[in-house]
């Protein structure tokens, strides 16, 4: 990160500064800087980046945060399902607070965990499967490993909640929120309209659906498949808007052909070192997302949709930006399904790896990606505005 910087209000704080100080001195400097500039909330982002603190007391930028997606965001919704897509065992969670295997598909925090922190919450959003009482008021995580935009995606792994099923679960949560708020529709609708929503889904519609069949037996040519997904995605997002969502960020899929799962299996000899054919297929979907967010924002009342470009925020595509050394091999020992072997020791140098298993990023990669989504001013990273600005609308 040397030479890079983090935007803090109207200031650029160079990361080289971070490398020149001991943690205790840096903490004192940042807190003094925060007090002087009244940028406590913004400084929190940098503190998280350097892992000097886990949470900083702050008023959340939004009243609640709702999460939809697949294994990149799942925090344990699959734990009680009959499915191959669950990881409630070590080494998953080895770096999560308390060294707890919650069901997150990484060694520590997911991108949405970090985003909850950046938004000012003092906790990560609870899984729909576990949330209780008034906890629903600050948000819920509905994400389910193995799921996709299409209902039949991921059936090879067994139980999972598709995007539409996750939205149905959200309806149940809305009913609970209304009850807590006195069954006043206007109050609840206004409340939900101020919340943050993120949706990161679609990878399994390729890896757990389309790419499982030989090319000659696939249900449609790549362009038609991408168009089908975009139509289904648009319909689902419109339903979410109808339930009160107004601030919605959706993730692209990035370069799936660069994942260890594809590189190890197909052994590409391309200059990129990736399976370029898969990346080209996925780009047909990703390239349609900016137009989708523009269309939804223009046609749906009060809507603000944002597109996060995973191809630019994924450190596996640009390891030098993150400082990782190993992008083609997983950090843990994996079994036949590509998940870490239960209770096997992970690599000791986890910050040197982009991927924890053959599909899922390490905590360091998750942090790098969400920092760009939250803070970048480049449309190639996040379009049309970043997540920090979206939260404040």
TrEMBL record:
Compartment(s) where it occurs, according to its Swiss-Prot or TrEMBL record: Secreted
GO BP: any one term: lipid catabolic process
Domain of life: Eukaryota
Gene3D superfamilies given in the database record: SGNH hydrolase
Keyword Hydrolase tagged: yes
Swiss-Prot/TrEMBL keywords: Hydrolase, Lipid degradation, Lipid metabolism, Secreted, Signal
InterPro entries per UniProt: GDSL, GDSL_esterase/lipase, SGNH_hydro_sf, SGNH_plant_lipase-like
Protein known as: GDSL-like Lipase/Acylhydrolase superfamily protein
Assigned GO CC terms: extracellular region
GO molecular function: hydrolase activity, acting on ester bonds
Family: Belongs to the 'GDSL' lipolytic enzyme family.
Cross-referenced Pfam families: Lipase_GDSL
């Amino acid at each position: 990160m040397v030479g890079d910087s983090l935007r803090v209000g109207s200031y650029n704080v160079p990361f080289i500064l971070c490398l020149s100080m001991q943690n205790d001195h840096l903490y004192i400097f940042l807190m003094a800087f925060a007090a002087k500039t009244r940028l406590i909330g913004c400084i929190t982002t940098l503190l998280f980046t350097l892992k000097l603190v886990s949470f900083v007391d702050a008023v959340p930028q939004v009243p609640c945060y709702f999460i939809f997606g697949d294994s990149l965001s799942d925090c344990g919704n699959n734990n009680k399902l009959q499915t191959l897509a669950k990881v409630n065992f070590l080494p998953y969670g080895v770096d999560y607070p308390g060294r707890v295997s919650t069901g997150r598909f990484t060694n520590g925090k997911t991108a949405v965990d970090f985003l909850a922190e950046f938004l000012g919450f003092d906790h990560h959003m609870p899984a729909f499967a576990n949330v209780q009482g008034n906890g629903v008021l600050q948000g819920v995580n509905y994400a389910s490993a193995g799921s996709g935009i299409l209902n039949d995606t991921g059936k090879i792994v067994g139980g999972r909640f598709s995007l539409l099923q996750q939205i149905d679960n959200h309806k149940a949560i809305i009913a609970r929120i209304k009850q807590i708020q006195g069954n006043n529709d206007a109050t609840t609708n206004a409340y939900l309209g101020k919340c943050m929503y993120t949706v990161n889904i679609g990878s399994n519609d390729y890896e757990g659906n389309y790419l499982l069949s030989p090319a000659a037996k696939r249900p449609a040519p790549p362009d038609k498949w991408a168009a089908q997904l975009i139509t289904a995605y648009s319909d689902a997002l419109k339903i979410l808007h109808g339930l009160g969502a107004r601030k919605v960020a959706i993730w692209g899929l990035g370069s799936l052909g660069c994942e260890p799962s594809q590189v190890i299996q197909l052994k590409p000899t391309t200059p990129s070192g990736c399976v370029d054919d898969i990346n080209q297929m996925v780009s047909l979907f990703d390239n349609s997302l900016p137009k989708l967010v523009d269309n939804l924002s223009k046609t749906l009342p009060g809507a603000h949709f944002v597109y996060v470009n995973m191809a630019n925020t994924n450190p596996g595509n640009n390891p030098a930006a993150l400082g990782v050394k190993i992008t083609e091999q997983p950090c843990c020992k994996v079994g036949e399904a590509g998940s870490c072997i239960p209770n096997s020791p992970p690599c000791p140098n986890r910050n040197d790896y982009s991927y924890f298993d053959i599909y899922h990023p390490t905590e360091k990669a998750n942090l790098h990606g969400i920092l760009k989504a939250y803070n970048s001013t480049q449309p190639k990273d996040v379009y049309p505005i970043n997540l920090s600005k979206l939260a404040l609308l």
